[in-house]
């Protein structure tokens, strides 16, 4: 593992200011403005995990904008009837325009993602590309919000179901996908006829203001009211405002299982809807017939990429006992070649952890793993010092799936377990509280089909011969059990953003009752 030098603080401030200015959204982000540290009343600090320092601040024209979450929800609620009445294909034009703006500003927005979330450039650009992809998907969807026509049991009657806009959708998002998760939700919600209030992570407010500005510009460019999208910046209290407000029809919340455990019951208590995308603890099974070259590449990207800070990060490697001794030395060698450091620098594959707390969580997990009989094969050390937290990704051989392995530690730790037969491997895959992503590397079609069958992986995502992370937008994304059960992005996930209405129309002159009931 090699480390690179971190850049100077002022250089990063300048890069943030230049990247933000390149988006050209200043007039669309009111009341917010972005400037040097300390600018503006009640300003929100913008920090980079690259150095751990402040790279600017977000101020508001009036202090109230920072705390009056109700006003944002009120505005989204007020605009909803007029947005609902815009024909869906015309709503698609707004999302098409958003996609165009994202293409135009891909590099600048990608740089902001690197600065605020610490992702290497390739992954940051990939995240913006994911936004562009979902916009394209949503534009097509805007002409395909189909309902069903059902055969009525009564003569002269028509039975059908239609999908209607829900109302205000509240989007709460996590730091590690600061822009893509917003786009998954917002592109779909908008074509479905909903207005949106977004509460981004408090760790990534600048990318949020950037996206807010781009969407408001898209709304203005297509002749629609920019108030259809609202942004509230703040910590969990801002999220709680969405959770508890009966004007918010759907709360789509992405983050830790801890957060979802609080949000789910509170939204349910007011009979609101929630869509939960929570923590994962994802496994790969390496079977005896696996192509080990392919498996190795898939494992390293899934486990060490994004510095282990993806919900779909590979955290458990379940290897058949006949290949474990061949695979592990190759895995250790691949880890030793990973370059850790400044994510702006070419060749770096592992950027920083988001903050000190993430590093402390990793160190505590490694300590616990060793206390539970684990042996660290490679990595696990802090690289560098100061206010930023870089680590060498770790591989830990475990004697069994003990307590620490069942938890999601949001850092690059890969626990390795050995198995004797496929039943045991599938049981290990499923024996954790989370159920997001999973994969098997095998050339045996029986094993592959078994893994993706009902008797196989219990996760929302079950892959064969690819890793656990890096899903395409075309499929429905989400997971079971403590991952929350929500589905976002492709397939028919759009249905979560609409309400279903079943209509029976009697065009006859009789009034026959269903089930042949006779009444007087
Ligand atoms: P987090 O739970 O700390 O915060 C997520 C968001 O929830 C933030 O905007 C935060 O302010 C808000 N929040 C926290 N408590 C809240 C409450 N009680 N009410 C309302 N809002 C509240 O998560 P994080 O550290 O930003 O992100 C990492 C976590 O997110 C990991 O567990 C990761 O697996 C998960 N994640 C899941 C997915 C998915 O699609 N399943 C995607 C990305 C991240």
From TrEMBL:
What Gene3D superfamilies has UniProt attached to this entry? Aldehyde Dehydrogenase, Chain A, domain 1, Aldehyde Dehydrogenase, Chain A, domain 2
Q: Known InterPro entries for this protein?
A: Ald_DH/histidinol_DH, Ald_DH_C, Ald_DH_CS_GLU, Ald_DH_N, Aldehyde_DH_dom, ALDH7A1-like
Is the keyword NAD assigned to this protein? yes
| E.C. numbers | 1.2.1.3
Which keywords label this protein? NAD, Oxidoreductase
Tell me the active site. 277
Keyword Protein transport in annotation: no
- Looking at its record, which EC class is this enzyme? oxidoreductase
The record places domain Aldehyde dehydrogenase at: 43-500
From the UniProt annotation, give the residues forming the signal peptide: none
Q: Which GO terms describe its molecular function?
A: aldehyde dehydrogenase (NAD+) activity
Subunit record text? Homotetramer.
Q: What family does this chain come from, according to its entry?
A: Belongs to the aldehyde dehydrogenase family.
Put simply, this protein is called: aldehyde dehydrogenase (NAD(+))
Q: What is the lineage of its organism?
A: Bacteria, Bacillati, Actinomycetota, Actinomycetes, Mycobacteriales
């Amino acid at each position: 593992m090699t480390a690179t030098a971190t850049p100077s603080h002022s250089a990063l401030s300048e890069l943030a200011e230049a990247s933000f200015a390149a988006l050209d959204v200043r007039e669309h982000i009111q009341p917010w403005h972005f400037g040097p540290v300390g600018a503006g009343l009640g300003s929100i600090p913008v920090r980079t995990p690259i150095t751990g320092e402040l790279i600017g601040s977000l101020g508001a024209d009036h202090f109230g904008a920072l705390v009056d979450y109700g006003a944002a929800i009120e505005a989204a609620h007020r605009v909803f009837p007029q947005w609902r009445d815009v024909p869906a294909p015309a709503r698609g034009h707004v999302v098409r325009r958003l996609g165009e703006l994202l293409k135009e500003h891909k590099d600048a927005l990608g740089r902001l993602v690197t600065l605020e979330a610490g992702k290497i450039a390739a992954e940051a650009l990939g995240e913006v590309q994911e936004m562009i992809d979902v916009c394209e998907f949503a534009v097509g969807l805007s002409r395909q919000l189909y309902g069903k026509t059902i055969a009525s049991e009564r003569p002269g009657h028509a039975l059908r179901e239609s999908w209607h806009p829900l109302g205000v959708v509240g989007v709460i998002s996590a730091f590690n996908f600061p822009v893509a998760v917003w786009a998954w939700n917002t592109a779909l919600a908008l074509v479905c006829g909903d207005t949106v209030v977004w509460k981004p992570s408090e760790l990534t407010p600048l990318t949020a203001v950037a996206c807010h500005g781009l969407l408001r510009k898209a709304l203005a460019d297509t002749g629609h009211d920019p108030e259809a999208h609202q942004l509230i910046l703040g910590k969990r209290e801002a999220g709680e405002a969405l959770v508890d407000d009966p004007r918010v029809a759907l709360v789509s919340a992405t983050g830790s299982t801890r957060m979802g455990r609080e949000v789910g019951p509170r939204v349910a208590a007011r009979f609101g809807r929630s869509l939960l995308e929570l923590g994962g603890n994802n496994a790969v099974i390496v079977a005896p017939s696996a192509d080990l070259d392919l498996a190795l590449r898939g494992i390293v990207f899934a486990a060490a990429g994004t510095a282990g800070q993806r919900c779909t990060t590979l955290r458990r490697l379940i290897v058949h006992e006949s290949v474990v001794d061949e695979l592990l030395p190759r895995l250790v060698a691949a880890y030793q070649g990973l370059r850790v450091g400044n994510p702006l620098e070419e060749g770096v594959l592992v950027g920083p952890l988001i903050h000190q707390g993430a590093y402390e969580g990793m160190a505590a997990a490694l300590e616990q793993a060793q206390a539970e009989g684990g042996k660290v094969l490679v990595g696990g050390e802090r690289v560098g010092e100061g206010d930023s937290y870089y680590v060498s990704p770790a591989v830990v051989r475990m004697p069994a799936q003990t307590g620490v392995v069942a938890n999601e530690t949001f850092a690059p730790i890969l626990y390795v377990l050995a198995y004797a037969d496929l039943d045991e491997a599938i049981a290990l895959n499923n024996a954790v509280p989370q159920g997001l992503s999973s994969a098997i590397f095998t050339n045996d079609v029986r094993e592959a089909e078994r893994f993706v069958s009902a008797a196989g992986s219990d996760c929302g995502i079950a892959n064969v011969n690819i890793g656990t992370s890096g899903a395409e937008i075309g499929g429905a994304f989400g997971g079971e059990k403590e991952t929350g059960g929500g589905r976002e992005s492709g397939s028919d996930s759009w249905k979560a953003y609409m309400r279903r209405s079943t209509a029976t129309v009697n065009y006859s002159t009789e009034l026959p009752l269903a089930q042949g009931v006779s009444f007087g």
